[in-house]
Amino acid sequence: MQKVMIVDDEVIFRDYLKSVLDWETLGFSISMEARNGIEALELVEAERPDIALIDITMPFMDGLELSEKLKELYPEVSIVLITGHNEFDYARKALKLGVEDYILKPFSKDELLLTLVKLRQQYQKAQEEKLTLRENTELMKESFLGQLISREYALTEEETIRRLQQLGIQAETGCYVIACVEIDHMDRKWGKASDRLLMKYAVTNVLNEAMEESGNHLIFNGPEGRIICLVRHQGGHNDEIPSLEGYKKLCFLIKKYLKFTITVGVGRSKEGFKGVYASYGEALEALQNKFVLGHDRVIAYGEQLPSSGNQPFYPTEANEELLVLLRLNSWEQLERKLDDVFQTIRERRLSIDYIYVICMGLVSVNLSYFEESGHPIADCFGEQFYPYNEIRKFESAEQTFEWIKELFHKAVVYNSKHRNTRSSKIAKAAKEYIEQNYADPGLQLEQIAQHVFINPSYLRAVFKKEIGITVSDHLTQYRMQQAKELLARNTVRLTDIAEKVGYNDPGYFSKSFKKFYGYSPSEYEKSRQ
Description:
Largest sheet: 6 strands, mixed
Distance between the termini: 81 Å
Shape: elongated
Helix content: 55-70%
Number of domains: 3
Strand content: 5-15%
Number of helices: 24
């Protein structure tokens, strides 16, 4: 609805103008009326009209003088002069001042309507141009600010300030800080791009309010769906962590009112615009630590993960044990072993890169099992299974752990479904017999074959095919696995452990243990102390 002001000293003519058209139906409203130019200027100062219908001949201040002042003070107001024939020369002068149109008295209803329609079209075109200009300016701002946080940014301090001022951004020298805001689980929560944009817009608005006290700040969209906040550091010194209160307030408000969570990574202050990229890098590094520290929080650069000790903890034989358990198709033992690995990661709070290395090693165990068994990987996990890409998509260590456990569980379920042949039943029965009688020092291939009612040569071939290793290797692996569990309890003597797992000679048991694991039983016990 466009607002119209009528300025005429004759009340009869003002009333005529108000009644000659159905203004509201046409999309206009008579918002004010004045008897002369002085009164009109006072009204315009309080409420800005879109169109002014002005008579030329008026006391105190005529229409020409009023038009001149309106164009000077409020150039966006469209002016239509209403004039008699003998005042046509005045109307021509007014057009030179920038008046949009004039109507000669007497005029018809249609003449007035056509003039208003033309003005509305001009108004709509001007609004569209303003919107386009504003959008283009915003795009240029976003583009320039995006360059500011890039490694390739090369403008000097003076050039940067001048460019920002050209874009309508107040800028000055000093220290600046970057904060990166990430909506947790955004892609999983909102499938539509429009929904994600709406949520980012909401976060940006709340961030603007939360950062009001921080003074000069800029908010723009960053790579990978993040929201970037560039703040002039009030402390004024280099390499300082800024106040985090505004960001904590943001997290609280988003969670309370919008019902989702965000994580904020904050870099240190850096001198000048040249240092913005360095602060951005620190903010990203801090944000990435949410993988281990958890989301829904503010993480400042320097809030690094505690040291995990002098040497990495992950023993090489852990993956070998998992592979053995996969061959045994024992989900309970697999789950227990995986939980032990994950718990150790939690307790040591390892670096993100080291966690990725461990997790990728676990994935490799799974894939190696399928490779040695001859089963197609796609048969179990699908054609679009790209684990090393997928593992990088998870936002926390816990999500990654659950995903890896699911992979192992799928492998066990798949293995169970594909072991229903006669050969697999024989191999399974032989395996169960081994696991029940492994403590017998005299357990041999012939005894096991007799138990499952086949000759030893056939058992050797069937077992290798179905289980993936030989009978003797499986017996050794199972004995070593049980021995290690007994050693871990630290309550059983070495001599007794050897006897419990089928070795009459403790010395020979120690040699076998070292050959299998790469360290002796005593070395293993010491490593756990």
